[in-house]
Hints:
Elements: H1 4-34, E1 48-54, E2 57-72, E3 75-78, E4 84-89, E5 98-99, E6 104-108, H2 111-148, H3 156-162, H4 165-190, E7 193-195, E8 200-205, E9 212-213, E10 220-224, E11 227-234, E12 248-253, E13 256-269, E14 276-283, E15 298-315, E16 324-328, E17 334-338, E18 340-344, E19 348-353, E20 360-362, E21 375-379
Parallel strand pairs: 1-21
Antiparallel strand pairs: 1-20, 2-11, 2-15, 3-10, 4-6, 4-9, 5-8, 6-7, 8-10, 11-14, 12-13, 12-15, 13-14, 15-19, 16-17, 16-20, 18-19
Amino acid sequence: MVSPIKVVGTLLRWTAPVVVIAGGALIAKELIDRREAPPKVDPPPRVLPVDVITVERRDNPASLQVFGTVRPLRTLVLRPTVGGPIQQIHPELLEGGRISEGETILRVDRRDYLLALDVANSNLVAAEADLDIELGNAAVAEREWKLLEGSIEVTDAGRKLALREPYLARRRSEVQSARTRVAQAQLDLERTEIKAPFDALVLSESVEVGGQAVVGAELARMVDRSRFSVEVSVPAERLDLLQPAGAAARILLPDGEREGTLERVLGEVDPEGRMTRLQVTIADPLSAEGASALLGAYAEVLLPCRPIGGSISVPRAALREGDTVWVADANDEFQIRQVDVVMRRPDDVLVVAGLEEGERVITSAVAVPIPGLKLAPRTRGAEQVGAGSLEEAGR
């Protein structure tokens, strides 16, 4: 039989912890219920600081950005018209050499042509002497004809023979032929010396003193170094924007910048892109002053355009994907605007629709561009990017 004391001890061992835990829970609940709740504080609204510029409408000067390669404006392929040993060449007749207008490029041995001229002059003297003799014979025949004219009956052909008219015509023809041969000999003699028709830059040559000049064979190739050209292609719908021929254009080269002239619209369309081709010229392209416009150099050309009236200049950095801009509206809230870009330039674009005078365009980055986001605009001063710059371009 179990002792009552042992039973009571067993119950206490199992129930005491439960009683302690329950009591602690009741005390904790009472303390929590008596605690005062902290005052409720609303979080401050989220405001994003951004950089903005204030835009304005104006007549923005503009230029059209195109690209091309520097090419020669005039090319000369040197082909002699007389043959013979080459007696003299210009010391600058080397690849890259420079020969001034009027200077002798090369001279062919003249002796054969001098002899030919002497022979032609001798033949002319002989022909003129034969003509003088025939004129004397004709004068005698005319006197004799006058004595016999009434006593004999002859035909018109017989009369011409009697007066030696056919012989006289032949002698005159021989004189004229001899004079022509003299002129040809003089021309051949002049052609033994070839002079530069313009200030030339030698591109290639295959001639040496003592070599043989062959009629029609290429001896050298050179270009006019006083002016080079850049041929560019422009969309046909952009031609109306360009200023007329003769306007100054800017040419950006790998090592600097040069001024060019819009020369003319070429009379053909680029077969690949169906674009209109224009020619821009560079005066004195190899001058030591400024960048050298070397042949074959890749060039960016800014063609002068008429001002774009009532347009707004927007920095390139502020133009977003899909031709949109971010705007801080009158309530300092974030807005996205679709704009109509009429011309794109290196530093900015010209907008004709989608923005109004005095609006603030955001130029800084926004991680999550959500319309209606509260902003803290920071104006970057009177920064009208590109408003009066001609360093612009369009596509």
